[in-house]
Amino acid sequence: ALAVMERQLAQTPFLTGADYTIADIALFAYTHVAHEGGFDLGPYPAVRNWLGNVMDTPGFVPMQDCCG
Fold first, then answer.
1. Residue 64 · residue 23 · CB < 8 Å
2. 34-47 residues labelled b (16+ CB within 10 A) or e (exposed)
3. Closest by Cα among 66, 64, 65, 52 to 24
4. Residue 67's pLDDT band (cuts 50, 70, 90)
5. Which among 10, 11, 2, 62 has a CA at the least distance from the CA of 37?
6. Got the DSSP string for 3-53?
7. Whole-number pLDDT of residue 66
8. Are 5 and 11 contacting, i.e. CB atoms less than 8 angstroms apart?
9. CB crowding 3-30: b at 16 or more within 10 Å, else e
């Protein structure tokens, strides 16, 4: 899945093109914590850039640590 995201995000700032959509919201939830599942985002520069794009979106609210 990360390789597919990388290919798309190397061409567009968000997953479906130039605009932030529900696809970005849905995939951000797990992708931003990929390291917790043992996934290294180092080989995916476009995915890392996209994470920043999502966090820089006006109105972005970071997820809270539910389980402290």
1. no
2. beeeeeeeeebebb
3. 52
4. very low
5. 2
6. HHHHHHHTT-SBTTBSS--HHHHHHHHHHTTGGGGT---TT-HHHHHHHHH
7. 44
8. no
9. eebbebbeeeebbeeeebeeebeebbee
